[in-house]
Amino acid sequence: MEVHFTPDVEKQLSDLVAQSGRGTNEFLQDALAAYFDELTQTREMLNSRYDELKSGRVKPLDGEEAFARLQAKTEAQRNRPL
Question: What is the pTM of this model?
Answer without folding.
Answer: 0.63
